[in-house]
Each structure stands twice: as C-alpha cells, then as structure tokens.
Amino acid sequence: MAGFYEDMVAIYQLCGGSSNLQASSLTTVINELSRETEGVLVEHLYKSLKGRKYLIVLDDVWKTQAWDDVKLLFPDDHNGSRIILTTRLVDVAVYANPSALFHQMQFLNKDASWNLLRQEVFAEECCSSELEEVGVFIARSCRGLPLSILVFAGLLSMAHRT
C-alpha cells in the first residue's frame, strides 16, 4: 500500500498542493516521498485535504479491503467533497456506500460492438466484406468493452483501407 500513498501525495502536490513544486522535478518529489514512512504520508495527505473541497477518483477497486484501507485518508468535512469509486464488482460498490446510487455498466453484445467499431472507423463510408470480416473479429476480440473498441477504432481509422 505504500506505493499508493506515495502516488496520492505526489499527485496532490502536482496539482498545486506545493508551491515549490515548480522548482522540483517529479523524480525529486518521488525520491523525497519514498523516504517518508507510510504513517507520515497518510498524515500529510489527510492534513492537506482537511478543510478543502476535493474530488478523488479511485479507479478499478477490486476488494472491499482496498476501500477500507483508503477511506480514512479523506476527511469528511461535509463541504461538498466527493469520492468516485469505479469497480467491476457490485459487492464492492454496495460495501463502499450501501445507500448510494451506482451505475452498473453492461458489456456490449457482438452486434453493438461491431456497430461501434464500424461507425468509428468508417463513419458514413461503405465497408468491404473483407474488412467487415476482420472488423467483426476485432470487435469480438474486445469482449464488449467500449474503451477497447474505441482504442482499436482510433488505430484503424488512421490505417489504409486495403
């Protein structure tokens, strides 16, 4: 977990928490933070956020224990601060806040995956049967994940259509 705390403090400082950061490089900041104990880093982060309005995004949380490990780092001053947690697991979302609304993403089916890829790559152009066959295979390989499809579409849209 120490790496997480180091990342959090470094990100905070990069976003304006430290006025002398302009004179330091990221490497210097990370080296300085790596000498601190986990407890010092936790205290520094908490004190830095105390009384301030913040937005924290915790992306791709897989375990309830991970939420338990980090939730106390963020002061709850009832000042409009928010923590956004993304997870693939409903039980983690419910555990983090049983009364909160959450949005459960669905994977795209094969047709929707191909339609998204085709629209992003070809827009209004026609797609040859050979390219369609390859495109359907690529879309299927993305396993219904829109971001994966869009990444491939971005790459394919720059390629020659032969």
From TrEMBL:
InterPro entries: Apaf_helical (IPR042197), NB-ARC (IPR002182), P-loop_NTPase (IPR027417). One of its GO terms (biological process) is defense response. Residues 30-125 form the NB-ARC domain. Keywords: Leucine-rich repeat, Plant defense. GO terms for molecular function: ADP binding. The keyword Magnesium does not apply. SUPFAM superfamilies: P-loop containing nucleoside triphosphate hydrolases. This is Late blight resistance protein homolog R1A-3. It comes from Sesamum indicum (Oriental sesame). The gene is LOC105157836.
